[in-house]
Structures are given as C-alpha cells and as structure tokens.
Amino acid sequence: MQSPQATQEPIPYSPVRQGVVIATLGLGGLGAAFSQTVMVPIQGRLPDLLDAPASQTAWVITVTMLVAAIFTPVSGKLGDMFGKRRMAMVMMSFLILGSLVSATASGLGQMIVGRGLQGLSMGVIPLGMSLLRDVVDRRWLGTSIAIVSATLGVGAAIGLPLSAIVTEHLDWHMLFVFSAVLAAVNLALIWLVVPAVNKRSAGRLDIPGIIGLTVGLVGIMLSISRGNDWGWTSAPTLAGFGVGFVALGIWAWHELRTVNPVVDLRVSARPAILMTNLASIAMGFALFSSNVAFPQFLQLPEAVGGLGLALLPASLSLMPAGIAMLVMAPVAGRVERRAGPRVLLITGALIIALAYGLCLVTELTFWIVTLINMVIGIGIGLGYAAMPAQIMASVPQTETAAANGLNAFMRSFGTTSAAAVVGAILSSATPMTVISSFHTVFVLGFVASLACAALAMAIPRRPRGEAEPLAEPVPAE
What we know:
Blueprint: H1 15-37, H2 46-50, H3 54-57, H4 59-82, H5 84-103, H6 108-119, H7 124-135, H8 138-169, H9 174-193, H10 207-230, H11 235-255, H12 265-268, H13 271-299, H14 311-316, H15 319-327, H16 329-339, H17 341-361, H18 366-392, H19 400-427, H20 434-457
C-alpha cells in the first residue's frame, strides 16, 4: 500500500524560484564555511598580527569552533519552533556583525568576540538543508542537498588560498570585509527569494536543556581542541572532559523527561539516525585529516622529505576537492534518487578510503596530492549529500532543522577531533620521524573512512515499496 506521504500534492513553487532558492541557500553555506576556515592558513602568523602569544591567539580559531558546536544544534531547534527562514536571516546577521567586529579589531579581545559571533552563524547550514525539504520538489531534493553540501567544500577551498593571498599582499582585515559583504548579499537574497514556511513545532524553548548542552559541549570540545597545548593528561584537559561528560549525562536525563527537548533523544536513537550520526563523525575525521596534513606536508622542507612549497601553492592544492564536490552534486542527486542515501554514503566513504590508500602506496608529489584531494572531494561530496538526505528521510518534517543541526554537530565533532589528533601526531614528530608521522595520519584517515562505510552499512534498509517522505506544500507564514 502506498504511503500517505507519497500522494501529497507537488510543491507550489515554480522551478525557477526553486532554483534561485537552492542557489541562495548554497551561498549561505559557502559564506559560513569561508568564515570558519579563512583564519586557518595564517594561524601561525597570528601572534605577530595580534601582538599576543600563540597560546592566546589560538582562541581565534577555538572560539569559532566552540560557539558553532554549541549553537548549531540549538539553532536547528529554534528554526523548527520559530521558522527556518527567520532563523537563517538571524544567522546571517550574526555573520555580518562578527565579520565587522573582526574587520575593525586592533587587539586579541575584540578579535575573539568577532570570531565568536561568526561561530553563531554556522547554524545556517543545517537550516538551509531543512528549508530545502520545505520548498524543493522531491524529485530534485537529493540534487539540491548535494549542491548546498558542496558549497561547504567550495567555501573552504576559496578561503584557504584567499587567506594566503590577502595576507601576503593586503591588510589581513580585508578577509573579514569580504566575509561581511558576502553575508550581507546572502541576507538580502534570503529575505527576497526564500519563501516563509509555516511549518513549526509547538512548545516552549527548553532553557535548562540549552544550558546543559552548552556546558557539556564546551567541556568536551574545549579539551579536544586545546589538549595538544595543555597536555592530554593535564588537570585542565581531564577536568574539561569530566565536566563535559557529567553535564551531558545530566542533560540526557533531562531531555528524556521534558516535553519539548532541544534534541529529541528518542528520535535520535532510531537506528537510521544513530548510525548516520556516528558515520558523520568518522567522515568528518577523514575529511579534516587531509585538510590538516596535506598543507603541512607540502610546506615541509625538502631536507626532511617534504616539498618545500610556500603557503599559497600549498593551499591551492586543496581547491580541486571543493570543485569536485560541486561537480559531483548532480551525480549525487541521481544516485540518491535511484539507490537511496545509504548507498550514497557507503560509496562516498569507500572512495575516501581509496584516496588514503593511494597516499600509503604512492610517492607524494604536488600533482599526486592534488589528485588525491580531488578524489577525497568526490567522496566527501557524495557523503555530505547522503547524510542530510538520510536524516530528513527518517524524522518528521517539523523536526528536520533540529535533526540536521545535531548531524552538523557530529560532523564538526569529527573534524575537531581530527585537528587535535593530527596536530598531536605531527607536532610530536622529529626530523627523523616526520614522514612516518604523516603516514600514521593517512592510516587514521583510511581507518576512519572504512569505519564510516561500516556504520553506513548498518543503517537499516528501507522496506521494499515504502516511499521516502516527500517535501510537503506548506502555507506561508
């Protein structure tokens, strides 16, 4: 018998308007990804640029990651409650404000405040994914998700070399001026072309749940991101982990007993969602392992086995990955429609594993690294298109933003863990062991990719004949 959802009427928006909405939401993802990665290539120069010790300037990177980790799941819940379009515009406003604060910063304190405000904007990515379900025809939903997901890679691919160029030839504050302009354009486009959708969940905002989630995530993410500097067995690191896990335990107890939780743990515990979120952690780890390792390897002096490249050409080697993600979007959409997001995720993970396997058996030149990055981009493009599609096929439409927010956090947790682990491995290497340390990183990326594939295989198959949920026609707010 056909599912009731499969008999619903088509989306009441023209194909042209749907295309413009997809482009607008993709631009939002690109801007958010750009702001998140733009400081990474010049992290080593921040002590000179901000006249502060490296232990303090590291917070310019850390604070964005921490705020994004906390607010991404919360922003999804707020989107489900108060309107996804409205919250997406709020996210863009935070990005504009944070970019302007950073662009005018003359000291470390103001820069940290600005970067924290930028971190608030990262929730626009899962909100955009959820809006697609509301306004895009089901036949093109998979492709549209793949396109918006690909802009994350494009944003990072643009941000890395642009950061190097601007820092070498212009005032580095111009990076934030560009970010502010991009966010302002996107805010205007969201207001003009994205329809307001009256599809909301009821209830009050779970303030104790937000506080508990904040304390738990700050403790764990702070220890992961700062463990290399503090020492993994130091008191601050262990205290952060301890406080974080205890807080999350209390938070989970509260969420299971409240009427309108920030994260519906009963829904999140469904096998399809749980396995997808765990696979997201593994794929995030596999992605960022290469993003951290390859630029450092390319800049490594030739005397110890590297290629001795400057920052700009090293950053340019990552651009093909972003381009490959964008080119693969239509392919990902077709595979998702025919085989489902589960097969798409498995395929993406195995392609990434193939790329890391090449790292282990091939002599790495600039062009080989560029080719491997392109292969990784193909795998990430497929995987990042599959995960939100799988999530949205498994949750009620009134919970898509919150569920996508949690999934986005899981990916962020994987990338943050990769940055910490890879950083610890490479920083502890000596000139005699530095090449073997890169091999260790590639082995970890290979293992993480296979783990992602195994977790994706554990996602329950959709019963034969059961239709996937369609995006519903919904009235305007």
